[in-house]
């Protein structure tokens, strides 16, 4: 198998050099993903792969640190000694990975940091989304949709995690000044079965619920299943976050969720930025991604972009 | 909890225990005089005490009357059912002196396989259910054989199975949830219907007053009860848990009986996996993390000894209800996560301490 593969690569290489001087230089990009246990991170790798496939001069090597900081550190060091042309890292945590990344920069390898930040500024560019902004956008949409007042159930992501905290505080900012009342809120720890259990409690406690705001789409789906079992799913709207194609977007398409806000992976933007860097163009030190809102009307067209 | 059931449980000796003499509480003079006190001090009575305490808390902190709605009780039982099914199998294994840490992972594996077969391949439930039970039983069988035949400590054997089954679940699902959204070769998605099996399992009957999964749990409970209390094999388990070497010398088929306990435990995990998949309408390879600990807590709150040889399945039912209601009561009152964890910890310890009193 390896033999066959190398033979194919060799042939491809020959063909390229035969094309003459116009053939572009081959770039090797190392991608260190902190773990592939979450669908969202699987999607990030898929987005990078899809974007890179359009540029035959790019070769991306993927490594999965399996949620182990030291393993991810070792992978960064491997990429450095391998002398890749560019490093993309979606770090597990900031402190222990800041120094390995700084060493990669010292070795002359540009580094793109995705999703989670590192300490200091010794990297080329940070690309990430802003959970607080997304939570705020959700809050504003809810105020508009409910006409400024109503009873809302909030099913929160793990409240000891930054995304969970930001999606909550952003939401509070978004509904500030309106008559939206959070009648019931619970920490469902991003888990669908927990969301369903908590929603059942909310349903048995409150006869009037206008909307469920869940910090992720599986949570909103769990809440929907609870409301459906109680025969009350038509009385309320369901709002989720993340908008992964096989989760949130699919739920919107199936009419389960009323809307979902995308938490973009930045995979495509990472490849765009990588190309700019590799071709010697300047890039900003920070790219904050916007969000997209999907509902039944716009889902086929890829959602509506929010600034 | 209907009063009738309470009385039935109280009057019969649920604390099936052939190795130790009848409840020790009889020795205390006060208990001899007063039959009511005797009933309360019996192990069964003490397991009830924990449940009664939790229910009393629910009556006081009733979440604006939500605790008095029948739907709340239906939901509490539904929520506890998957754990309860796991706890049935766990009781068998614990009585024979073992432990099974793999049930949560086996649940995820069967949930993923179940969703794959039922949703994406549209197989009939008559085919999917037996295959899922077989997968669960096979996982249990492997850890059982390793434990019983090769004398590996059950903690180690089932810990390995816990990791292995989780890996299998991730492999079988490709790391993604197996849901009704199926990817086409061109990257777009098409949507499958929720299969009839899932609709059937995640249903409510008797006028919407009881969830199907609760009935499935009760069926599992009944099966475990018959096996453990009415069948010779149940006696074997107690004997092995009490003294494995002595049981072997007196002709108990130790290897077969122990392996069978793990096979059944795995099979129950398979049932739980089907219920989990049906309730989530998907197979999540990350499902069931930590469920084994909840199941063990339910067994222990009932009063079954982790050392093996003592305890009973009916006590596990009390443990399931205690933890199930505790969860629900904390939830309807919207207690913050930190408070929930602390209270749950305190109540588990308190329940286990009531169990231990007067027994040496």
- Rounded to an integer in angstroms, the radius of gyration calculated over CA atoms of chain A is 22 Å
| Number of extended strands of chain B | 4
Biggest sheet: strand arrangement of chain A: 7-6-8-9-10-12-13
Terminal CA distance of chain A reads 48 Å
Oligomer: heterodimer
Query: What name is given to the CATH topology of chain B?
Result: ABC transporter involved in vitamin B12 uptake, BtuC
* Biggest sheet descriptor of chain B: 2 strands, antiparallel
Biggest chain-to-chain interface with counts: A-B, 34 and 36 residues
Number of strands of chain A: 13
CATH topology of the largest domain in chain A: Rossmann fold
Overall pLDDT confidence of chain A:
89
Strand content of chain B: under 5%
Envelope shape of chain A: elongated
CATH architecture classification of the largest domain in chain A: 3-Layer(aba) Sandwich
Structure, described:
The complex is a heterodimer of chains A (307) and B (360). With 307 residues, chain A is α/β, with parallel strands linked by helices. Chain A folds into 2 domains: 26-123, Rossmann fold; 131-263 and 297-306, 3-Layer(aba) Sandwich (Rossmann fold), CATH 3.40.50. Helix content of chain A is 43%, strand content 23%. Chain A contains 10 helices and 13 strands. Chain A has helices spanning 2-18, 39-53, 69-81, 95-106, 131-145, 162-175, 192-205, 217-229, 248-253, 267-278, and strands at 27-33, 58-64, 86-90, 111-114, 125-129, 149-156, 179-187, 211-214, 237-242, 259-262, 286-289, 291-295, 304-306. In chain A, strands 7-6-8-9-10-12-13 form a 7-stranded mixed beta sheet, sandwiched between helices. In chain A, strands 2-1-3-4-5-11 form a 6-stranded parallel beta sheet, with helices on both faces. In chain A, helix 4 links the parallel strand 3 (86-90) and strand 4 (111-114). The longest helix of chain A has 17 residues, at 2-18. Chain A is elongated and about 65 Å long. The model of chain A is unreliable at 1-5 and 7-22 (pLDDT under 50). The longest helix of chain B is centred in the C-terminal third of the chain and has 27 residues, at 254-280. In chain B, a hairpin with a 5-residue loop joins strand 1 (181-183) and strand 2. Chain B has one domain (35-55, 69-356): Orthogonal Bundle (ABC transporter involved in vitamin B12 uptake, BtuC), CATH 1.10.3470. With 360 residues, chain B is an all-alpha fold. Chain B has 16 helices and 4 strands. Chain B starts with a helix and ends with a helix. Helix content of chain B is 69%, strand content 3%. Chain B has a two-stranded antiparallel sheet with strand order 1-2. Chains A and B meet through helix 2, strand 7, helix 7, helix 8 and helix 9 of A and helix 5, helix 13 and helix 15 of B.
């Amino acid at each position: 198998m390896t033999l066959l593969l190398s033979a194919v690569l060799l042939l491809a290489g020959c063909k390229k050099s035969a094309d003459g001087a116009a053939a572009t230089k081959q770039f090797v990009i190392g991608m260190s993903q902190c773990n592939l246990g979450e669908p969202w991170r699987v999607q990030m790798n898929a987005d990078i792969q899809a974007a890179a496939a359009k540029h035959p001069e790019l070769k991306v090597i993927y490594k999965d640190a399996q949620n182990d900081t030291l393993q991810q550190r070792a992978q960064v060091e491997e990429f450095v000694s391998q002398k890749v042309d560019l490093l993309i890292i979606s770090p597990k945590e900031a402190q222990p990975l800041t120094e390995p990344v700084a060493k990669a920069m010292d070795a002359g390898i540009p580094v793109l940091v995705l999703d989670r930040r590192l300490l200091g500024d010794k990297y080329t560019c940070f690309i990430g989304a802003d959970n607080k902004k997304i939570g705020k956008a959700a809050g504003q949409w809810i105020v508009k949709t409910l006409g400024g007042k109503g009873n809302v159930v909030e099913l929160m992501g793990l409240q000891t995690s930054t995304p969970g905290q930001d999606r909550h505080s952003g939401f509070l900012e978004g509904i500030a000044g309106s008559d939206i009342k959070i009648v019931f809120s619970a920490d469902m720890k991003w888990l669908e079965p927990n969301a369903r259990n908590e929603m059942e409690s909310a349903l048995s406690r409150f006869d009037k619920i206008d909307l469920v705001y869940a910090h992720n789409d599986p949570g909103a789906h769990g809440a929907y299943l609870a409301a459906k079992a109680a025969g009350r799913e038509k009385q309320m709207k369901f709002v989720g976050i993340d908008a992964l194609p096989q989760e949130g977007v699919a739920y919107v398409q199936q009419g389960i969720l009323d809307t979902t806000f995308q938490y973009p992976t930045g995979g495509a933007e990472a490849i765009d930025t990588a190309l700019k860097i590799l071709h010697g163009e300047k890039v900003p030190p920070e790219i904050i991604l916007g969000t997209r809102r999907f509902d039944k009307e716009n889902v086929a067209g890829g959602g509506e972009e929010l600034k | 909890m209907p009063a009738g059931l309470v009385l039935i449980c109280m009057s019969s000796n649920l604390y099936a225990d052939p190795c130790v003499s009848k409840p020790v509480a009889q020795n205390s003079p006060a208990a001899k005089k007063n039959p009511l006190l005797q009933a309360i001090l019996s192990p069964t009575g003490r397991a009830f005490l924990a449940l009664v305490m939790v229910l009393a808390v629910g009556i006081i902190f009733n979440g604006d009357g939500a605790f008095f709605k029948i739907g709340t009780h239906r939901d509490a039982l539904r929520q506890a059912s998957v754990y309860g099914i796991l706890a049935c199998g766990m009781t068998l294994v614990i009585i024979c002196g073992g432990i099974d840490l793999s049930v949560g992972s086996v649940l995820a594996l069967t949930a993923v396989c179940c969703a794959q077969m039922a949703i994406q391949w549209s197989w009939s439930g008559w085919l999917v259910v037996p295959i899922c039970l077989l997968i669960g039983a096979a996982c249990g069988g492997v850890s059982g054989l390793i434990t019983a035949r090769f004398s590996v400590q059950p903690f180690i054997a089932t810990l390995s199975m816990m990791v292995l089954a989780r890996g299998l679940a991730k492999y079988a699902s490709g790391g993604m949830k197996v849901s009704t959204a199926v990817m086409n070769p061109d990257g777009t998605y098409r949507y499958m219907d929720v299969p009839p099996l899932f609709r059937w399992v995640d249903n409510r009957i008797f006028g919407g007053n009881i969830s199907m999964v609760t009935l499935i749990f009760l069926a599992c409970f009944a099966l475990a009860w018959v096996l453990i209390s009415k069948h010779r094999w149940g006696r074997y388990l107690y004997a092995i848990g009490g003294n494995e070497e002595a049981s072997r010398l007196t002709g108990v088929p130790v290897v077969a009986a122990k392996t069978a306990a793990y096979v059944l435990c795995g099979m129950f995990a398979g049932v739980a996996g089907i219920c989990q998949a049906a309730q989530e309408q998907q197979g999540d390879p990350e499902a069931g993390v930590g469920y084994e600990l909840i199941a063990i807590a339910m067994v222990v709150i009932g009063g079954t000894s982790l050392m093996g040889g003592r305890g009973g399945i009916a006590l596990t039912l009390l443990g399931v209800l205690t933890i199930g209601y505790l969860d629900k009561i904390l939830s309807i009152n919207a207690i913050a996560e930190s408070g929930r964890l602390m209270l749950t910890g305190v109540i588990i310890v308190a329940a286990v301490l009531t169990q231990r009193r007067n027994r040496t």
